TrEMBL record:
It comes from the Bacteria. It comes from Azonexus hydrophilus. This is GGDEF domain-containing protein. Residues 1-253 form the EAL domain. The chain holds residues 446 to 701 of 701 of the full protein.
Length: 256
């Protein structure tokens, strides 16, 4: 497959890079960034991770791709610390096959050590499906990561089928309300009901909750009213290259 071999080369030829999207508090101030991989292929132009991440999972390149993103992200976060932002956290998406097959904790530990980054400056985003597949294994992996001091967020929350009983057993810190619900939360229908349910579930389990994909002031107003105080979305900032971060951090736009 042409795309397949192009991706193989991409990893070696520096065609991958990482962009960073701010996560902000109720005052619009950034407390962290999500690292998102991008691929500008010489052959195929810019290819979305929606296409190449599943491909990388199938062809065994996901380990290399994630290792690349982790390294970039951890070196960035170490640079933020050195520049006087000791608390900024970087979040990296972990895909299912990596979580299942590889020694994730050892990989994470080696990258943290290489970057000189304290574990509390790193967050890993996993999905509900990864928790509910092989529960015993997920518990073991997450306990190991948590013992290191890394933060764990459940991405796209509400789209899967989490057993609430299990959710409580996992060492999770954060739930991210999926964008599909946030988009509808100001329309008074199902999106609002699910967003409200996720926010109250998070609060009752003593978890933090981040609304993702916030695009409009009307959505932000509803989220505020529901007690959600952490946000990510185009209303605040789009993902940006590392080179733009310094200027952003010096002057983040404060949402009204
Ligand atoms: O950034 P964008 O909206 O194009 O991302 C699309 C999808 O790709 C999202 O689901 C996002 O989580 C996923 N994605 C982006 N970067 C990474 C990455 O580094 N690793 C994994 N596993 N998924 C990623
Ligand atoms: O699956 P995951 O939650 O990791 O996907 C995150 C992706 O969502 C990012 O790649 C980013 O490009 C995208 N995203 C972030 N904020 C917004 C937003 O406000 N609107 C839309 N349409 N996409 C967003
Ligand atoms: Mn994510
Ligand atoms: Na998501």
């Amino acid at each position: 497959l042409a795309l397949d071999s192009a991706l193989r080369r991409a990893v070696e030829q520096d065609e991958l890079y990482v962009v960073y999207q701010p996560k902000v508090d109720a005052n619009g101030r950034p407390f962290g960034f999500e690292a998102l991989v991008r691929w500008d292929s010489a052959e195929f132009g810019s290819v979305s991770p929606v296409r190449f991440i599943p491909l990388a999972e199938e062809n065994g390149l996901i380990g290399q791709v994630t290792w690349f993103v982790l390294r970039e992200a951890c070196h960035q976060a170490a640079a933020w610390r050195a520049a006087g932002n000791p608390k900024l956290r970087v979040a990296v998406n972990i895909s299912p096959s990596l979580f299942r097959e590889k020694d994730l904790a050892a990989l994470v530990m080696s990258v943290l050590e290489e970057a000189g980054l304290p574990p509390e400056n790193l967050e890993l985003e996993i999905t509900e499906g990864m928790l509910m597949g092989d529960v015993q294994r997920a518990l073991a992996v997450l306990d190991e990561l948590k013992a290191m001091g890394v933060y764990i967020a459940v991405d796209d929350f509400g789209t899967g089928y989490s057993s609430l009983a299990y959710l409580k057993r996992f060492p999770i810190d954060i739930l991210k309300v999926d964008r599909s619900f946030v988009i509808e939360c100001d329309c008074g229908n199902e999106g609002l009901a699910i967003t409200r349910a996720v926010v109250s579930l998070a609060h009752s389990l003593n978890l933090r909750v981040v609304a993702e994909g916030v695009e409009k002031q009307t959505q932000l107003a509803v989220l505020n009213a529901l007690g959600c105080q952490e946000f990510q979305g185009y209303l605040f900032a789009k993902p940006m290259p590392a080179a733009a971060l310094e200027a952003y951090l010096a002057n983040p736009t404060i949402a009204g």
